[in-house]
Amino acid sequence: xxxxxxxxxxxxxxxxxxxSGPYVTRLYNALVxxxxxxxxxxxxxxxxxxxxAYPDTVEVRPLKPVTWEGCLxxxxxxxxxxxxxxxxxxxxxxxxxxxxxxxxxxxxGFFCSxxxxxxxxxxxxxxxxxxNMQSFEAGDLQHLWDxxxxxxxxxxxxSRIGAYYGCERRIIRDMVPADKQSFWQVExxxxxxxxxxxxxxxxxxxxxxxxxxxxxxxxxxxxxxxxNAIRDKWEESDNRLRVKxxxxxxxxxxxxxxxxxxxxxxxxxxxxCGVDMVDHGQGLTIVQASxxxxxxxxxxxxxxxxxxLVIIEKVDGCQxxxxxxxxxxxxxxCGWLKGYCMAPGFEQYRAVxxxxxxxxxxxxxxxxxQGLLPRTIWGFGRYPDLLPFVQREPKWExxxxxxxxxVGRVYYPRRSAELNRILGGHRQQAVDAMARIDGxxxxxxxxxxAVYADAMYRTKVSVSPWGQGEACIRDYEAMAAGCIxxxxxxxxxxxxxxxxxxxxxxxxxxxxxxxxxERALKRYKxxxxxxxARDAVLREWDPALLAQMFAGRLWQxxxxxxxxxxxxxxxxxxxxxxxxxxxxxxxxxxxxxxVVRIGRTKR
Length: 603
Description:
The protein is α/β, with parallel strands linked by helices. The protein contains 17 helices and 29 strands. It has a 7-stranded mixed β-sheet with strand order 3-2-1-4-7-6-8, with helices on both faces. Strands 11, 12, 13, 14, 15, 16 and 20 form a 7-stranded mixed β-sheet that branches. The longest helix is centred in the C-terminal third of the chain and has 18 residues, at 417-434.
């Protein structure tokens, strides 16, 4: 997971009329709206009493540089004292986020930054790093910090031309090997736009539809810009969304999961992301559609309102439940959220009984073309059955006596003969292959939960064939218990929390299972790797991360909806529903402390 780092020190932003708080809040909210991968934000500040408010989900840490010249304090990000780990993306507070940030958050090269464009950007000439947005692995550039600590005098003296003089980008130029430096304009062409103080008084427009980031340098602070597209994008992050939840079973609890909407911390974190859960006066309605304790799918019909609606469907696998297929082209629906869905490029796929992996096992099937494509939310990580594994930390160095284990059914008594032929045959192949592995444990009868859990904590490698869906709660349980998971390769599987990057792939017919288990046993020896896999599972128990992802999904759905005036373009204060006459929106926003009514729309 990427850590987004920003800095606040000195009077530059703090003394402006907007203060530093709105800058932090707007950067955070903009990242929420324009990302779909997990991340967290850390703010390094020179004092605790920051001016203005910012989300509680932003972690504030003390900034303790060697000296305070120029931009040198940003080198603190490379200090061991900063306490950072994993991937880091440094973003200046005055950066304007206006488009998809996933490519920036997911970039995994050695070092990347904005190329200094003074004199015009030319890929053929030597490029110099700009410090506004940098991506690297924590610890890889610690030598920059060490050099500053060893000789601070060299970093603050001299002329602006001949020495560093408080400029961290010159340090990067000299101390990061040129062959390891990358630049956003080269890696992600067209996604970054640069404005300078010379452009400050002009009416600037974004210009490029694919632009994701607008970098402001010098005195071109967003709050000082005249009214234009860039300032509108910056201020847009103050918008709020009012959301009403329609439960699937009338009691507000989805029987398949521990419902985050009953968690006060999750609701508070949603509010930090600009989303307010309400009982009435909503601008957006969320419909939970999933199976109840009785095995029924509820609700069977959509609410009788004109929209916009977001569907949360908790049904195993990538497929949409057959009962809901007719909803896929309903114009009232602006978003469809599932634990798992098809990865980009697999929108059209061959399926048996609506399931992509059944076609993979059995071959054949019809080419299915869906309407509104789902996006992913939390998966099996919040199922009640996982709770004992979340609460029980593995004894990482303890010896385990089971080399490889499989506990699961190979026959589904309440399912069709066709399902048992396809899925049962697939699982039987896994059982047969495990018979060739020394020290294997095979159990095809249902076990008491305590017995099953104890067996998992004794196992090194957990073999996880496909079930009714392509993913399985066993994957989560095994990782939480400190196992390495071996499962069939599933390239079409997409999820918000990519825990399956820690799995070892094998063939769908398991002919190579012994070799895959050997590869998994080598990974098992790496305790830090297994801890990282468990931490990935625990992400779905973090209310702040869940809220951040969920709020982003809602904003993206509303932004793309064409049913009526876009709710995301104004600060929504109230929405009323008039009987059967459709949805009536009363959209208001705040201007200089006064509530100004924009108007009323009706469908």
